[in-house]
Amino acid sequence: MDDQLKQIGERLRGLRDVLDIPASEVAETIGIDQEKYEKIEQGEVDITISNLMKIAHKYGVSAEELMFAEAPHMKSYFVVRKGQGMSVERTKAYKYQSLVSGFVNHKADVFIVTVEPKPNAHTVYKNTHAGQEFNLVLEGKMELYIGGKTIVLEEGDSIYFDSSKPHGMLAVGDKPVRFLAFTVE
């Protein structure tokens, strides 16, 4: 399985060990069964960014620590140069580049997300997380599915929505879509 998924699983297991939390409690936190959660810790099953954020919020760590094994250090400001933000490629289809990973106690999570096109894809994985989300399409075109509606967004388009509603996206066409995702509770 993907090395990054294994590393994230190891950090999740380490968090549980340090805080003496049973796997069943973390599984309940993100709304999945314990067996699936244990496969996440083993690096055999992917975990969504929104579920990592739920775990981080509940147990008082940053999502960046779980994703990248690096704690934020900056308190006044944090600069990310073009293409230099910490990134994780959760699957071959999704890449998240954090734009706030180095700032201590940031109040929002901001990522540049790249979604590769999936020809003939008919199933869209949807997730939910507390708070609200803002997306701004930087390049390409995507279909965003929110609570039973399909919204097509093209370069320059943006949307702000209640992220507790099930949502997911697909790249449209034969090129990847890149968008800014800003989440806040």
Would you kindly provide a written description of the structure presented here, covering whatever features stand out?
With 185 residues, the chain is α+β, with helices and mostly antiparallel strands. It contains 5 helices and 9 strands. It has helices spanning 3-19, 23-30, 34-41, 49-59, 63-68, and strands at 87-89, 94-98, 108-115, 132-139, 141-146, 149-154, 158-162, 167-171, 177-184. A hairpin with a 2-residue loop joins β5 (141-146) and β6. α2 (23-30) crosses α3 (34-41). The protein is globular. The two termini are 32 Å apart. The mean pLDDT is 83.
Question: What is the helix/strand order?
Answer: HHHHHEEEEEEEEE
Structural class assignment:
alpha+beta
Largest sheet: 6 strands, antiparallel
Strand portion: 25-35%
Q: Could you give a short description of this structure?
A:
By secondary structure, this protein is an alpha+beta fold.
Explain the layout of strands and helices.
Layout: H1 3-19, H2 23-30, H3 34-41, H4 49-59, H5 63-68, E1 87-89, E2 94-98, E3 108-115, E4 132-139, E5 141-146, E6 149-154, E7 158-162, E8 167-171, E9 177-184
Antiparallel strand pairs: 1-2, 2-3, 3-9, 4-7, 4-9, 5-6, 5-8
Helix pairs in contact: 2-3
